[in-house]
Amino acid sequence: MSNTLFITGATSGFGEACARRFAEAGWKLVLTGRREERLNALCAELAKQTEVHGLVLDVRDRKAMEEAIANLPLSFATLRGLINNAGLALGVDPAPKCDLDDWDTMVDTNVKGLMYSTRLLLPRLIAHGRGAGIINLGSIAGNYPYPGSHVYGATKAFVKQFSLNLRCDLQGTGVRVSNIEPGLCESEFSLVRFAGDQERYNATYAGAEPIQPQDIAETIFWVLNTPAHININSLELMPVSQTWAGFAIERNKA
Ligand code: NDP
Ligand code: 8X3
Questions:
Q1: Measuring from atom 39 of ligand 1, which residue has the nearest CA?
Q2: Test site for ligand 1: of 35, 107, 155, 187, most ligand atoms within 8 A of the Cβ
Q3: pLDDT, tens digit, for every residue of 108-121?
Q4: Of 148, 159, 158, 164, whose CA–CA distance to 204 is shortest?
Q5: Is 201 a catalytic site residue?
Q6: Is residue 1's pLDDT more than 90?
Q7: How do the domains of the chain map onto residue ranges?
């Protein structure tokens, strides 16, 4: 059976780096994202190495997802891998100052979008069977609290539990499920989070030697290529420069 991979959010960051890494190894690819120009350019470039199918898709649009997946070309009928990568954080303001629309967007993308792609693609992964795998992009934000993480961190806690629960239901199918939980990584993620503010982006990564998208792609490539009898349940990674802050204590002024 051929090695075919479906990636949500392949137009930048981890998704794009994964597309390049797996194309290099000859995997056939289905790549998705909302930014059509970028997606087309990437597909055209990678088509020189492997078979690629691009889908301009918003993972929040359940109907569009259903239609696009139902109409995948026959040569992508079975999947060895699904990388549920499309996701975002919006803002770091404290909860009382947040815009409810931003909270909706994070839940709709990180939770519901991931739910849609998983459910719709499960039959194709099960059809591949032994050796297939779902890679979910969780985060350290799903493991540890920090100020301004509120709904973003909660969506990643969903990803963590959903990944574990899925494993139970997939027992006997051979399909593996892994939750990749990165810390500080340099990508457009922070431009999106800070609404395009380049100075805040620069300050976030300055002097921190953050993880790069290629590092995540290499990790995911390893996870999907471990022997078929092994399931990496979760893999948390941080740059060496990043550790944990202490507990916050508010003290009486008197
Ligand atoms: P990027 O912003 O570089 O990439 C995000 C990708 O998701 C883009 O391709 C974007 O494509 C796609 N996307 C966003 N919203 C939608 C949508 N509604 N429908 C379809 N695609 C969408 O960020 P990263 O590569 O860094 O992040 C990838 C994942 O990793 C996210 O889930 C993020 O939460 C997680 N993560 C990131 C960390 C980091 O520090 N960077 C650390 C831990 C986890 P387009 O805009 O074209 O639709
Ligand atoms: C992204 C990592 O620490 O900014 O998920 O939440 S963090």
A1: 185
A2: 187
A3: 999 999 999 999 99
A4: 148
A5: no
A6: no
A7: 4-237
